Amino acid sequence: MATLGDIGVSAAINIFSAFIFFVVFAILRLQPFNDRVYFPKWYLKGLRTDPTSSGAVSKFVNLDYRSYLRFLNWMPDALRMPEPELIDHAGLDSAVYLRIYLTGVKIFVPIAFLVWAILVPVNFTNSTLELASKIANVTSSDIDKFSISNVPLRSQRFWGHVLVAYAITFWACYVLLKEYEKVALMRLQFLASEKRSPNQFTVLVRNVPPDPDESVSELVEHFFLVNHPNHYLTHQVVYNANKLATLVKKKKKLQNWLVYYNNKYSRDPSKRPFMKIAAEREKVANDPKSIMPAAFVSFKTRWGAAVCAQTQQSRDPTIWLTDWAPEPRDVYWENLAIPYVSLTVRKLIIGVAFFFLTFFFMIPIAFVQSLASLEGMEKAAPFLKPVVEKKFIKSVIQGFLPGIVLKLFLIFLPTILMIMSKFEGFISLSSLERRSASRYYLFNFVNVFLGSIIAGSAFEQLDSFIHQSPSEIPKTIGVAIPMKATFFITYIMVDGWAGIAGEILMLKPLIIYHLKNFFLVKTEKDREEAMDPGSLGFNTGEPRIQFYFLLGFVYATVTPAILPFIIIFFGLAYVVFRHQIINVYNQEYESAAAFWPDVHGRILTALVISQVLLMGLLSTKKAALSTPFLIALPVLTIWFHMFCKGRFESAFVKYPLQEAMMKDTLERAREPGINMKGYLQSSYIHPVFKASVDDDEYEEENSENWEKESVIVPTKRQSRRNTPVPSRVSGASSPSLPEAIQEHPKP
Asked: Where does the pLDDT of residue 745 fall: very low under 50, low under 70, confident under 90, or very high at 90 and above?
């Protein structure tokens, strides 16, 4: 069990690590040759030029010593941009994501003052643990003296914990109510002021019933001309082009490795993947089996799209299923090829797989955590006992090692969860990230929180739970919670302090950019592609934030000493990620903060968990008079969640017809002659068809270089005009895919 001295050593190590990260970042970001690594967003917007283009030495190395003296200036710079300007610059998703950190600060700063003013004196002014250590040889740490463990059984002081629990609940609900109201208003204002985009006019229709007399394209056109005669405009059927996408991706990878590509294909141009791509493209175009029973259907107005997306299209509720289409860059095209009827089976398979993943992950976590402890090391390697018993080494092992081991052990989990979400069949990147985030949160709760609290292996824990009544489980967990406060404090410092500081260094993108820049970059376009700005990573970032909400609520009334560490995390993370959003991250999609109901629900879930565990803990303390008064808290919190769900959630799942009509009317007044069909015609063409056309152009532009370096004369390539491609719109007058791309470029 870590002592106050061990926590001090851990704090010193993590603060020093964070400081080193900030200093190294400050030096690296000031060097002109790293400009594209630390400011890629401004390059993508065309608002920044490369300082190395002049070729002078000072353009590669910053020789101004005064700039190094202001190495922390990026912090106030990150806070200077107002929120409306931030929304214009980075989008509503990014701005609302930052509000999650602000919500944590708003909730826990007042709570910290409250519990330190009331509960810390109530807990600390007892001598229960001191007497227990003398009489029963019970081991405890200095931190435990600030916790509820130091309050004797049947004490009237537990009324203070009950009253503070009520105050925490009311304050948290008040803050969440205001935030939900604010975010809902921000979303509606954002949608009202948002520029015209294809997803505002388009719905995705799935499970189109088969018809022996009509193709899918003809059937879709006929259905919507009959049922939406005044608003239907055009459509694009969905193709299973996954194999073609794989070939295009492979070819792009080979083109990036220019040295490898030249050496290999200049000797034998027939091996170029161009012809394979052309053949596969022709196969997709001519094979009816490549056409899926789904289509993107576009309407003349937002109002028409809103009516279609939010109503049932057929008396049979299992066919002609419509929903809002994701924006084109948000579509996960690979999953559109999954038959709709198989989605239920896939969800069942993944549900079972996730259960076993969550449960059996306890085994390696418990094993590694036991080895990372002082007792575990001495047991596994007795010869290390003289070394680990030294004071500083002992402090490092108890105060730093368990947290860093747990963080390293979970490093591959987000990738596993994202693969599971993709298999489940979600058709947008935003929905994939939201599902992965919800599973990551549940995994953290079961393995990181409960798994770290309850001692023993997974099978011992399962046996313990099986032979207990459900009412005893909160008691079991509640008793263990105070004893694990020091572990979570060390974990917060490793993950929430040093980990957040390491985020800004961007070591991996830095190394990859310079490797690409040295070996692969030949043109300005290559240099842009070498940049890896990344994105927020909602599937990993949001569950991390939610874990700190859980720790804050649970330990606020149990071990208040943990709250300052959590507040530092929220404040530091807000500054760091605000800087990254302004200068680095290039968001892959814009969902207009559609994730906020999930965020709100998970915060309230953490609050309910803390209330139930506090009841279990107080019941073991023989607080028979005060404990029953906590029963009302979960009931009130669940009622509050239902109230917010009914009051605000519709703003995140439905688009008001009034808003749609208003925006359509304004647009017709401002642009009366707009060609909506031309605007929407190529918006939802599968990207690989566009990419393959672009690759043809790339081949033509570089063919002379190929022929000069080639020993064998290249074979004649098929003209892209003669290559069959899928039609954008059914009917004889519909343009072919290349013509649609050329005449109506992607907006």
From this structure: very low
How would you classify residue 321: left for phi > 0, otherwise alpha for psi between -120 and 50, otherwise beta?
beta
pLDDT at 248 over 90: no
Q: What are phi and psi of 322, to 5 degrees?
A: -120, 145
Kindly report the three-state secondary structure assignment for every residue of 654-678: CCCHHHHHHHHHHHHHHCCCCCHHH
Report the C-alpha gap between 330 and 324 in whole angstroms. Answer: 12
- Distance from C-alpha of 282 to C-alpha of 151, rounded to nearest angstrom: 76
Distance CA 515, CA 520 (A): 8
- Contact by Cβ (8 Å): 147, 561: yes
Of 625, 615, 474, nearest to 159 by C-alpha is 625
d(CA 556, CA 698): 61
**Tokens for 387?**
């070394």
Residue 631 has pLDDT above 80, yes or no: yes
Report strand pairing: 232-239 vs 291-299: antiparallel
Collapsing DSSP states into helix, strand and coil, what is residue 236? strand
> Is the dihedral angle over the CA atoms 61, 67, 73, 77 positive or is it negative?
negative
Q: How far apart are CA 306 and CA 301, in angstroms?
A: 9
Phi, psi of 499 (to 5 degrees): -65, -45
What backbone phi and psi angles, to 5 degrees, belong to 235?
Answer: -155, 165
- Strands (E) in 304-436, as ranges, are 321-324
HSE on the CB side for 21, CA within 13 Å? 18
The model's pLDDT over 643-695, given as tens digits with 9 standing for 90+, comes to 999 999 999 999 999 999 999 999 999 988 888 988 898 899 888 887 655 55
In sequence order, what DSSP letters do the residues of 90-157 get, joined into one string? H-HHHHHHHHHHHHHHHHHHHHHHHHHHHHHHHHHT--HHHHHHHHS-----TGGGGSGGGSPTT-TT
Burial class of 455 by CB neighbour count within 10 A (0 to 12, 13 to 18, 19+): middle
Task: Please tell me the distance from the alpha carbon of residue 293 to that of residue 240, in angstroms, as a whole number.
Answer: 10
CA distance 659 to 123: 55
CA distance 142 to 147: 10
The label of the residue with tokens 């917060």 reads 492
What single string gives the DSSP state of each residue in 670-715? H-TT--HHHHHTTTTS-HHHHHHHHHHHHHHHHHHHHHHH-SSPPP
